Amino acid sequence: MEAEEMKLAQVIVDVPAMQTDQPFSYLIPPQLAVEVGMRVEVGFGPRHVQGFVIGFETAPEPLPDNLKPLIRVLDLAPVLNQELLALADYMKATTFAFKVTCLQTMLPSVMKANYQKSFYLLKEVDTVQANYFAGGSSLDWEDAEAQGWLKELAALREQGIVELRYEVHTKNKVKTERYIKRTFSPAKLAELKAGLRKNSYKQEQLLDYLAALAEEKLVAVKEMKAEDFSLANLNQAEAKGWLTFVAVEKYRDPYAEREIQQTAALELNPEQQAAYEAISQKNIAGEHQVFLLEGVTGSGKTEVYLQVIQDVLAKGQTAMMLVPEISLTPQMAIRFKARFGSEVAVLHSGLSQGEKYDEWRKLERGEAHVVVGARSAIFAPLENLGVIIIDEEHETSYKQEESPRYHARDLAIWRGKYHHCPVVLGSATPSLESRARGQKGVYQLLHLTERANSQAKLPTVEIVDMREEMQRRLNSSFSESLEEKLRNRLAKGEQSVLLLNRRGYSSFVMCRDCGFVLPCPNCDISLTLHMDTKTMRCHYCGHEEGIPHRCPNCGKDKIRYFGTGTEKVQEELEQLIPEARVLRMDVDTTRRKGAHEKILTAFGEKEADILLGTQMIAKGLDFPNVTLVGVLNADTALNLPDFRSSERTFQLLTQVSGRAGRGEKAGEVVIQTFNPEHYTIKLAQHHDYENFYHQEMRIRHQTDYPPYYYTVKVTVSHQEEMKAAQKAFQLAEQLRQQLSPQSILLGPTPGAILRIKNRYYYQLIIKYKHEPNLQGTLEEILQVSQKDQRQGLLIAIDNEP
Ligand code: ADP
Ligand code: ZN
Fold first, then answer.
1. Can the peptide bond before residue 404 be classed as cis, meaning omega within 30 degrees of 0?
2. Which residues hold Zn(2+) 1 (predicted)?
3. E-strand stretches of 453-505
4. What's the CATH architecture for 270-448?
5. Is residue 297 in contact with ligand 1, taking CB distance under 6 Å?
6. Taking the chain, what is the end-to-end CA distance rounded to the nearest angstrom?
C-alpha cells in the first residue's frame, strides 16, 4: 500500500474500561465504503468491539506496522449526522461523560448491541439483488456481505428501494401483514372463467372480484376473509397464477388500537394569541430565541404549542415536543395525534425496543415530522427543525441521573441555536434558573394568567394542620375535612385525586421495645414493607426479604409499622369508604408495559372514584370530572436535605392542585401538613408563583445557591469506605488550590446515603460564578484518576445536580 493519499478511519471504540476519548486509527479495506457517522466493528486487543467513525486522517509514512484494518462496516448510511456528532461533543464537554457514551445515548438501544440486521425490500424492482427477495421481504446482512452486495445495496438504499433494519433477537422481528395482488390481465377474465370446471362458483366469484381491482392494488388477506374468501380459496388462486401474496411491512404502532378523534385549532384568547405570535414570528424570521411560557395550570399552553407547530409543519419544517415522563405522554401524545395524525411519532421508555426503533425510523425517513417524547427524544433525528418545546420545563426527569448526565433543556437550546429556531420552555412553576434568565432578558417571558376554559377557575385550597388533627384522629391518614369532602364527591359522582409521595405499605418497621429498624444489608437505608408481595424491600438496590415477626435484635414481638405508604392508604380507604372504587398508581402498579395508560384510561372512563398515587399522578392529567385533590402529606419533599426542596414542594403542590376543577365544575384542594406556617405551603395555597419566586430567590442569594452560583458535584465511591474518603479529601485539596478565591468548595461529606449497593459515597460541591478553567481541571482529575478507577474507584461529575 503506497498510495500517497491513503486515509485512515478515526474510530471511537466502545471499551469502557479504557476510559479514554482518543480515537484509534484503522486501515480501510478497499471493499468497504465508510463515512463519518457510521458504526464499524474493529479489533481491539483480542476482542471485536463496536465503534463510531468520527473522521479520517492521512496515513503517516511509513505506515506503523501495528495498524489494524476495519473488520466491517455496520451501516449503509451514517446513523449520526454532522449535527448530532457536534452535539455529542457539546454533551461530552458539559457532562464529563465519555464520548462513546454520548454517541450511544443518541441512538435507539436496539442499535447498540444484540441486534440482527436485515435488508428489507421497500419497492419491487427488476434487479438481481431485488430478485433475491422474491417470496419474502428480507435479506440477512451476513448473506449480503457473503454475496459481496453491500455496495450495491447501499446504492439501492439511496434510491429508496431497500432499507436496513436493526432488530433485537427474534422477539422484535419486523412485523408484516399479508396482502394479495392480482396477476392476470382483466381482459383475460372471460377466458379464465371459461377454463373453470362446472360449479366452481366460489372461484368464479373470486375471479370477478380480482378483475374489478385496480391495477397493482393490494388487498389485505384479512379483508379478503371478510369478503368471504378463505385462505384455501386464495392459495388455490395463487397456484393458478391469478394472484400473488405480498408481505407488507407494518410499523409496530403503540396507538393502533385506539380511535383518535381529529381536532381543529381553537380560537386563541388574547394572551394565547400574543404568545403564539411572538413564537411564530421568530420561526418565520428563522431566528433562535428561548421563550419562557409561564402559564397557570390549564391556561392553554398546549393549544399554543399545537398552533405554533401547525405553522412550522406548513412551512415544511419539523417540530419537537418534550414532555417529562411517560405517565404524561399518553394524554399528550393523543392530543398531538388528534391534531396532526400520522405526522406524529412518539418516543418514550414505555415502548418496546422495536416500537421505539420504528418510531425513530419514521422520523429518520421523514415520514413523521413531529416528535412527542420524553427526555431522550431530544436526540430525535429531525432535520430542519422549526421549533423545540419543553413542556413542564422545571421537571427533574429532564436531567439524566446516570452518565451522560445531560439536561434536555440545555441540549434543546443547543439544537435551537443550530437550527436558528425558537425554543419554548413551558411551565406553571418555572425552575428558578429559567425564571431568573427570563427576568434578565436572556429568555423572553410570555404569560398566560388565566385558565383558558372560561368556566374553569383555579381551585380553592384548604390547608389542614395535621398536628391538631393527629390529636383527634390518631392513626388515620385522613383529616376530617378531607374525609368529608371525599364522601361528598362520591355522593355527587365526581372524582378525586389523592397524592402521597411514598410507595409501599410503610416506610420502615421498628421494634417498639428496643428501637431496632430493619436495614438493607447492602445500603444504609431502612427496608420498606410491601404488602402486595409480603416482603421487605430496598428501594435503592432491590433487596427483598421476609417480614420479621420478632425483632431480629431483641427477639420480642413488638415489631410495628411506621411511615405510611400508598399501599397502606389504599387499605385505609377501603375501610373508611368501602363503597369508593380506588385506583392506585405508583412504581409498583405500573411496572408492566402500558400499565400507566390502562390506569389513566380507566380513571378517565370513570371506572374509579379515586385515583391514589405518588407524584406520577401530579402532572399533566386533564380529567374534567376531578373536582377534589387531596395531598396527604405535603411535607415529604419539604424535609429532604436539598436546597431545592422548597422549590420541588411548591412545584408539586401547584401541579397536583392544577388537576382539580379543569372542567365546568369548581375544584377544591386539601393540603395536609405538619408545617402550615411554611412560606412554601402558604404561597402554594394562593397559587402565588410570583411571590414564591422572589422569596426563594432571596434565600438562594443568602445561601449562595443557584441561580446565583453554578454548582458541580463530584462524587467518589468505592467498596471500601476509607478509599472513597481518602480520594475525596485528596481531590478537595487539589481543587482548593486551583479554584479562585470567589468560589466555594463544600465537603467532602458522606453522601446523603453513605452506602448504596455496598459502595460508599463521598461528595464535594463546587459553587462558582466564574471559573473558566474548571472544565479543564475536572477533565484532568478524571484523566489522572484513571489508575484508581481501574481499581474500583468511581468518580462521577455532575454538572448542576
Ligand atoms: P395547559 O397546557 O396550560 O395546562 P391546556 O392546553 O391543557 O392547558 O388547556 C386546558 C383546557 O383548556 C383544555 O381542555 C383545552 O382544550 C382548553 N383550551 C385551551 N385553549 C382554549 C381556547 N383558546 N378556547 C377554549 N378552550 C381552550
Ligand atoms: Zn439496598
1. yes
2. 511, 514, 551, 554
3. 460-465, 495-499
4. 3-Layer(aba) Sandwich (3.40)
5. yes
6. 52
Domain 710-799 has CATH 3.30.70.600: yes
How far apart are the C-alpha atoms of 731 and 765, rounded to whole Å? 11
Are 15 and 44 a contacting pair, CB within 8 Å?
yes
- Looking at domain 460-506+564-701, its CATH architecture is 3-Layer(aba) Sandwich (3.40)
The answer to whether the CB of 147 falls within 8 A of the CB of 139 is no
* 428-484 confidence digits (pLDDT tens): 999 999 999 999 999 999 999 988 887 778 899 999 999 888 887 777 899 999 999
pLDDT reading at 129 higher than 70: no
Helix (H, G, I), strand (E, B) or coil at 374: coil
**Where do we find the cell 467498596?**
719
What pLDDT is stored for residue 135 in this prediction? 43
- Determine the atom of ligand 1 nearest the C-alpha atom of 302: 6
Range(s) within the chain of domains with CATH label 3.30.70.600: 710-799
Say which ligand is closest to the CA of 519.
2
Which cell is 544 given?
A: 427483598
Query: Side by side, which strands form the sheet with 626-631?
Result: 460-465, 668-673, 626-631, 495-499, 610-613, 582-585
Q: What span, in angstroms and rounded, lies between the C-alpha atoms of 289 and 286?
A: 10
102 known member of a binding site: no
Orientation angle between helical segments 689-702 and 645-657, nearest 10 degrees? 170
Residue 523 annotated as binding?
yes
Residue nearest atom 9 of ligand 1, based on CA coordinates: 300
The pLDDT tens digits of the residues spanning 682-706 come to: 999 999 999 999 999 999 999 999 9
Instruction: Report the 10 Å Cβ neighbour count for 23.
Output: 20
Determine contact, residues 207/193, Cβ cutoff 8 Å. yes
* Residue 50 Cα to ligand 1 middle (Å): 48
Contact yes or no for 622/604 (Cβ under 8 A) = no
Q: What is the pLDDT of residues 338-393, one digit of tens each?
A: 999 999 999 987 787 778 888 998 998 899 999 999 999 999 999 999 999 999 99
| Residue 565 contacts residue 612 (beta carbons within 8 Å) | no
Q: Is the CB of 105 under 6 A from ligand 1?
A: no
For residue 688 the three cell numbers come to 402565588
Listing DSSP states for 386-442 in one string gives: EEEEEETTT-GGGB-SSSS--BHHHHHHHHHHHTT-EEEEEESS--HHHHHHHHHTS
Provide the ipTM. Answer: 0.98
This prediction has a pTM of 0.85
Ligand 1 atom index nearest CA of 391: 2
Nearest CA to ligand 1 atom 5: 300
Cell of 456: 374553569
Distance 531 CA to ligand 2 centre (A): 18
Euclidean distance between CA atoms 312 and 342, whole angstroms: 16
266 lines ligand 1 (CB under 6 A): yes
Task: Give distance in angstroms: CA of 138 to centre of ligand 2.
Answer: 47
Give the range among 89-93, 225-229, 629-633, 635-639 with minimum mean pLDDT. 635-639
Q: Is 551 annotated as a binding residue?
A: yes
Cβ–ligand 1 contact at 331 (below 6 Å): no
Rounded Cα–Cα distance for residues 421 and 432 (Å):
24
CB of residue 116 inside a 6 A radius of ligand 1: no
Question: For residue 272, how far is its CA from the centre of ligand 1 (angstroms)?
Answer: 10
Strand ordering across the sheet containing 47-58 = 68-69, 24-27, 7-13, 47-58, 39-44, 72-73
Which cell goes with 226?
371478510
Determine the Cα–Cα distance for residues 611 and 628; give it in Å rounded to an integer: 11
Chain-centre distance of CA 684, in angstroms? Answer: 28
Candidate from 323, 389, 427, 622 with most ligand 1 atoms within 8 A of CB, to mutate: 622
Q: How many CB atoms within 10 Å of residue 122?
A: 16
What pLDDT is attached to residue 123?
A: 65
